[in-house]
Amino acid sequence: MTKQQEINEELNKINTASERIHVLNNDDPPPPIEPSGFIDDGVILSYPDKSAFIFTAPMKVNGQFIAFSVSNGIVSMMKSQNGLNNWILTPTNALYMDIFWDGTRFVGNYGRWNVDVLGRCNTESWASLDGINWSKTHIRRQKTEGEDRTTLQEGSDILCIVRPDTPSYGPRSIGFMRRRVSDWNWYGDKVLMRPQDNIYDNIRSNEYYMMSVISYNSKYYGLLTEYNAVDGGITRLRLAKANIFNGTWEHSNNNQPIINLPSGHKQMFGRWGVIGDEAWIYTIERKSGHDETSNGSFFYSKRFRIKLSELANIN
């Protein structure tokens, strides 16, 4: 089978699966609401026999909702009129990386594992005008800890929220680096949040895996994925807030998850974006833990949303 035939076969599976994705209509009951106030709009991408999930924050480009997903190693660009269902998927040559729209083009931020330094990554910048055909624009060899990263655009600045290079005995932490929209060179590495309640006597607990950041009314809100190595590796979503991005971040919602793990599940990651007057989250979820094999469970994605005004009132 040729590569094109493999892609065509994969697209047929994607389109078939897309028809199974839940479609909201007037006869549906109201969607469930989390204790924190987030509305659960249900599964938006799922296959019965393999992992398929959205790995980018929600975005709206030229009137269409855009997301990027991966399944069987193929990254697809997804388009929808409502950001929930009836997606049209197109295979791309993009990598599994954080992707955002900077106003004129799609930009990717990829952490490539460095074979010479265990657990550390180089940073590659990629760009695309159509979201389908991608080219590498820059590589930064100063290391980050792990490949997970998100992006926030602040005017002419691009902020990359990433796990900074920490000593091997230290906990996974959240930091950032920045660059100008007109310049691909990253600079100014700094730690933003470091777990304070960790005891490192051969036990890792409550580390920070990644954080997706949005701004509203001159304040910053972080969707923080917390990682706990117990019981196979549990990941949860918590809320952090800051008045200044490069300032003090504090936990909110009484340090409880803002979205509860479904019964029997151990993993939930998420990225969010501002859509109109709401914050939307696209999650990545799975029953088995981060440090476990799939055991027949596969990653899938759901959508959650909340009014920005309600988000601001979560203490």
Give a brief outline of the structure.
The protein is mostly beta strands and 315 residues long. Helices cover 7% and strands 48% of the residues.
Which labels suit this protein?
315 residues; Tachylectin-2, Chain A; seven-stranded antiparallel β-sheet; five-stranded antiparallel β-sheet; 20 strands; 48% strand
Describe this structure in words.
This protein is mainly β. It has a single domain, classed as Tachylectin-2, Chain A. It is built from 2 helices and 20 strands. The chain has a 7-stranded antiparallel β-sheet, with no helix packed on it. Strands 2, 3, 4, 5 and 6 form a 5-stranded antiparallel β-sheet that branches. A 4-stranded antiparallel β-sheet has the order 1-20-19-18. The radius of gyration is 19 Å and the shape is globular.
